[in-house]
């Protein structure tokens, strides 16, 4: 059976049109070895096909609606690189109406482009070679105007349909994402229980990722961030080489990819199992803000209003703690909170960790809808460096907060009744964390 996503894509296409959607190529890691292959997210979403060098041709008005160009079976290559579905498998297992070796694509391109009124193709989307083949073929057909050729008059970016579909998850997708979330949440719990002074950040990384793989995940859905002490104030810290010190916090931002879908969790906890008073000040403020934002999630709430709410709560709290000085309203107007809270509240989550889809329509922030999955991840990051604070920001940061970084991140599904927290299995209340670590 055709994937429901592909059927829906066809339904949304112009009636007399054709779409050309390429798979991702292999990516060289070094010299003659490649990274583990990962399919292009849009191609995977529509076809479920996980091999490189494939092209999907989708023509809803044709008798053959779905054609897959694939690598043919090849006993010699399969000894080295493994099984290929081949043209038989493309029809048998991926519901293609017909399939050809990908080497035949060039010869068939003229035929594919002759007739449809619109072509769906995303130029500039990672395949310059295919881009130029299509441009060449189109211009050749336009030049040949004394023959009865009909090249498409209209070119449409297919991601205008696909990415909009990807924003709203089906029940089947939510089920997979719940599993991706559970795997990551359980791994975080294991890490919390195991962490102690003297361990290395990379040992924590290894523990999380071993857990992911044991549970059938493909691995992390992005490079795990394991930041102890002041490393937690570096937003994309991925070196993960330092030693964990008694008295410091550890920020773990790690998610699992399962059946092609990402989870994305951050927890921050004390390395010795007990928060200090100063750490609690920051931690509780971030947690209170995070839970209040999750409470606000419901269909109709504008995504920008969630962010504004987090800015208001964090700014008021930072004034209370002496991290910022002055009138909260003015501090927000002048964006002074960005000294310590410099990223967005969250993002869509799905096949990509920062998933596809628009956040604005006509310059207006989009409202949450049932079926969206997004992260809620406020944080505060207080650099240990007091010498290079840019002018206009608070130069007089209380010493007890220097080098503290806290982020708390959950994945939520928007339902008619509000947020369903997919990542609820890993504790975030400070006392609950301490109790878990004491075990
Ligand atoms: N780990 C990437 C993010 O939280 O957005
Ligand atoms: Mn995130
Ligand atoms: Mn994250």
Describe the structure.
With 439 residues, the chain is α+β, with helices and mostly antiparallel strands. The protein folds into two domains: 4-165, Creatinase/prolidase N-terminal domain (Creatine Amidinohydrolase, Chain A, domain 1), CATH 3.40.350.10; 168-438, Creatine Amidinohydrolase (Alpha-Beta Complex). It has 13 helices and 21 strands. The chain has helices spanning 4-12, 41-47, 75-81, 86-94, 105-113, 128-143, 159-167, 171-194, 201-214, 277-296, 303-321, 328-333, 430-438; strands spanning 17-22, 28-30, 33-34, 55-58, 66-70, 98-101, 118-120, 154-156, 219-220, 225-228, 249-254, 256-258, 261-262, 265-270, 360-361, 364-365, 373-376, 379-381, 405-407, 410-415, 418-421. The strands form seven sheets. The protein has a six-stranded mixed beta sheet with strand order 6-5-4-1-7-8, with helices on both faces. Strands 9-12-13 form a three-stranded antiparallel beta sheet. Strands 10-11-14 form a three-stranded antiparallel beta sheet. Helix 8 (171-194) crosses helix 13 (430-438). The chain starts with a helix and ends with a helix. The model has no long low-confidence stretch (mean pLDDT 97). The structure holds glycine and manganese (II) ion (2 copies).
